[in-house]
Design the sequence.
């Protein structure tokens, strides 16, 4: 088995890991499906108010690709279609049945022969939206042939869910997804060095490889860059491991079951464990009784490095596998924070000599590895890029991150592509953004540049 | 502290739009972020947590690293004064020790006042015009500048050079982070070429006259204030300082550059905190050493070419430049591989200028400025190589 050892990277010792337990949350009566969760598509409705839908029935399709359907996670009646400015579809509300009825894909699954069959069933079932592609880090474009499919079986971000536990016993389901996908292109599955899970190690019809190293070792871009570097003009698909299980249920059981185990984590969360959720549930069902109300908190869909802030009235999307709660920190007034040692904060930049000495001389040996509680403060002002070599330390790819970001800021297409914009997703810059002393919004820059690139090229 | 915070924020309302001192808002902002870490939180999208290092913290580390050089420089200014005026003829006493330090402090403080008032003044005005926060870059520039000047430089010249450098080497390019040349070195180069009499010669490095009317005296007979490099470079009868004398740095020279161990303390702090690149430092010292050794072996038969290579490394501004000035990340090479080449270029040039150009006894300033000019090209080549190999895979 091929193994890659990443030297560069950073594991943040964050406080608030989820226990390996399953919590219960109440199921709402109404599910709200938000088309905005699917970035880069223009929704065109397939249903009207009063229609009956099953789990797996289409709700809307993409304007650019009519075959790409987005389906309902539950069965029930379309109760309302909420529109915003210029009749933009904000959400499709479905009054859910007590027990979910599933659309039957068994006949189609049984008849799979070619890769076209696999593609069409994915497009029809709505699970196509779980497939992302490089370049552009968008939902895979149906008119592009992928040269490879990369699946990372672990996430290395701070407080990431333990997929070995989440997917325990689901080896057969994962296998049926991999077998189906292998008809489209070679499937590569990355396993964390030292992970024992037979669910991952036993997979067939795919190329397995091991990855050792700190975050972002689990990012698919990093693994692609080392295992099968992209050539000019190629397309590579990436699928999250839990999303692979969703696809697996389709091919194994012939149903669209979008239920996921998400982890609730973070220093400001109570009930730090795993919960079964369906897309369309209100976030409040998960979070309302589970955070420290005495301080201002920030709720994050995804991990603290590359997730995005959500509000209590938002809706659970199909993508995140974890929800993080941290303090907002807006009420912390740190006196001359740029000069005094911060013994209770983690410093990557080593610019806190007193803390560094304290850590290395005593703390580590006496008390073991310490966990820290981050809040959402930038802890500094925005500046031009000053310090050099910072990004390289946490960017383990054969790419010059600083030069690429500069080309992205300038929206210089040729330069961007030369420097490797095809191979990256915004999340790959998450650690760079974290360590940046100039507090540059790198992921937003990368997102804007990739969208611009897609608009110009496609 | 919470009370002070509230008072300070209330006071700040005067500086907001429509407030009494609206025109001074950048001034308030600068002090505000100086006093309290900004409470700005992460945007909705993007990294939700950030590291504690910010540019203020990075800059303050450099300033801390420079303090040993400053303290020693102050003492040395006084010491050289006492030495030149014959007050040390009967040996060093405790009183004279304090006198030396006091004399040095009084001599150097005006430099700092001029450097910071002129430089930060311009920064504040520009920030106000551009409606931006004041960047910290000048904290370091302003701290370094007096350390790389001869103590007898007239203050009005320092003021003009500072203004010139801040405006034409930094602000016209867009401010901190966008400058091509090291700002402090541009100020020095400006003085060097505009007022050469103040920057070179035998008498600029030691103050004989009074400081603030205190302790005016004349030099004793037979005293020379020339630096070792000047003596060697101009073929003067060289009364070469020994290795340890040079290492300790009690000799004429620019204020902060003479003492090797003070610079090394700073270097340790910079390297320990990772603020400066060890690659640049090592590359400069190694290349300069090799180049000087080659001149020792095969060079022309002049005093400076025969000056041992290890003495080259510890004399003049070479070490100070290598530790504090060439490592400026903004003006140096930014790629890791480029840093080696950039350092090598500087190390080679400094010895070349010293040995082969009789007009310039010291070459560090010009070598670093040349390195600055070439840094973008070096980076371009390094990145180009990466692009090529990625295209061909």
Sequence:
């Amino acid at each position: 088995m091929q193994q890659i050892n990443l030297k560069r990277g950073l594991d943040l010792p964050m406080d608030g890991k989820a226990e390996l337990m399953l919590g219960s949350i109440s199921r709402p009566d109404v599910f709200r499906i938000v088309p905005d969760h699917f970035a880069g598509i223009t929704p065109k409705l397939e249903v009207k108010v009063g229609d009956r839908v099953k789990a797996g029935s289409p709700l809307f399709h993409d304007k650019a690709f009519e075959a790409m359907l987005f389906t309902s996670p539950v069965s029930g009646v379309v109760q309302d279609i909420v529109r915003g400015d210029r009749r933009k579809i904000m959400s499709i509300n479905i009054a859910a049945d007590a027990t979910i009825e599933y659309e039957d894909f068994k006949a189609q699954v049984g008849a799979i022969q070619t890769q076209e069959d696999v593609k069409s069933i994915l497009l029809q079932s709505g699970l196509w939206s779980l497939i992302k592609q490089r370049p552009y880090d968008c939902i895979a474009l149906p008119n592009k042939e992928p040269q490879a499919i990369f699946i990372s079986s672990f996430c290395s971000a701070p407080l990431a869910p333990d997929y070995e536990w989440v997917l325990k016993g689901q080896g057969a389901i994962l296998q049926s997804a991999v077998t189906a996908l292998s008809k489209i292109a070679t499937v590569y599955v990355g396993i964390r060095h030292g992970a024992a899970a037979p669910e991952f190690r036993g997979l067939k019809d795919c190329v397995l490889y091991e990855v050792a190293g700190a975050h972002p070792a689990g990012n698919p871009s990093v693994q692609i860059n080392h295992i099968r570097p992209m050539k000019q003009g190629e397309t590579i698909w990436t699928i999250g491991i839990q999303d692979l299980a969703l696809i697996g249920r389709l091919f194994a059981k012939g149903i669209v079951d979008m239920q996921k185990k998400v982890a609730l984590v973070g220093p400001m969360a109570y009930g730090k464990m795993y919960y079964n959720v369906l897309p369309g549930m209100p976030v409040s069902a998960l979070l309302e009784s589970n955070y420290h109300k005495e301080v201002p908190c920030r709720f994050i869909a995804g991990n603290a490095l590359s997730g995005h802030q959500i509000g209590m009235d938002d809706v659970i999307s199909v993508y995140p596998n974890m929800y993080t709660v941290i303090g907002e920190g807006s009420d912390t007034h740190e006196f001359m924070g740029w000069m005094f040692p911060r013994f209770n904060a983690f410093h990557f930049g080593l610019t806190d000599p007193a803390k560094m000495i304290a850590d290395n001389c005593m703390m580590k040996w006496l008390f073991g590895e310490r966990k820290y509680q981050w809040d959402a403060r930038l802890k500094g002002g925005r500046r031009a890029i000053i310090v050099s070599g910072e990004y390289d330390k946490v960017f383990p790819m054969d790419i010059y991150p600083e030069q690429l970001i500069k080309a992205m800021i300038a929206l210089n297409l040729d330069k961007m592509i030369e420097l490797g914009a095809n191979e990256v997703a915004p999340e790959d810059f998450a650690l760079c953004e974290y360590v940046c002393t100039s507090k540059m919004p790198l992921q937003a820059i990368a997102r804007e540049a990739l969208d611009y690139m897609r608009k110009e090229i496609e | 502290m919470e009370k002070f915070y509230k008072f300070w924020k209330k006071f700040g309302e005067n500086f907001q739009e429509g407030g009494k001192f609206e025109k001074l808002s950048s001034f308030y902002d600068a002090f505000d972020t100086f006093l309290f870490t900004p409470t700005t939180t992460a945007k909705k999208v993007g990294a939700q947590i950030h590291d504690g290092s910010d540019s203020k913290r990075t800059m303050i580390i450099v300033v801390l690293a420079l303090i040993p050089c400053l303290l020693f420089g102050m003492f040395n200014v006084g010491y050289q004064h006492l030495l030149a005026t014959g007050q040390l003829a009967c040996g060093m006493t405790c009183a004279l020790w304090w006198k030396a330090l006091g004399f040095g402090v009084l001599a150097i403080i005006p430099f700092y006042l001029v450097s910071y008032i002129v430089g930060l003044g311009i920064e504040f005005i520009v920030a106000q015009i551009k409606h931006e926060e004041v960047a910290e870059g000048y904290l370091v520039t302003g701290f370094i500048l007096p350390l790389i000047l001869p103590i007898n430089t007239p203050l009005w010249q320092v003021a003009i050079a500072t203004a010139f450098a801040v405006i034409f080497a930094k602000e016209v390019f867009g401010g901190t982070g966008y400058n091509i040349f090291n700002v402090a070195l541009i100020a020095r180069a400006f003085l060097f070429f505009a007022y050469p009499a103040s920057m070179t010669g035998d008498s600029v490095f030691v103050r004989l006259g009074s400081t603030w009317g205190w302790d005016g005296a004349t030099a004793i007979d037979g005293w020379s204030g020339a630096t070792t490099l000047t003596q060697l470079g101009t073929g003067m009868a060289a009364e070469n300082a020994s290795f340890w004398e040079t290492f300790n740095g009690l000799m004429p020279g620019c204020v902060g550059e003479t003492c090797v161990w003070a610079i090394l303390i700073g270097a340790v702090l910079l390297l320990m905190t990772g603020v400066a690149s060890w690659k640049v430092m090592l590359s400069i010292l190694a290349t300069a050493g090799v180049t000087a050794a080659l001149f020792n072996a095969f060079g022309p038969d002049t005093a400076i070419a025969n000056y041992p290579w290890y003495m080259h490394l510890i004399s003049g501004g070479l070490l100070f430049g290598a530790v504090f000035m060439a490592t400026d990340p903004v003006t140096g090479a930014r790629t890791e591989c480029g840093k080696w080449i950039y350092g090598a270029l500087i190390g080679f040039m400094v010895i070349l200028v010293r040995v082969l150009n009789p007009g310039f006894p010291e070459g560090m300033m010009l070598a670093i400025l040349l390195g600055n000019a070439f840094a973008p090209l070096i980076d371009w080549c390094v990145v180009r190589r990466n692009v090529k190999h990625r295209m061909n895979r």
Observations:
- Chain B has 16 helices and no strands.
- The mean pLDDT of chain B is 89.
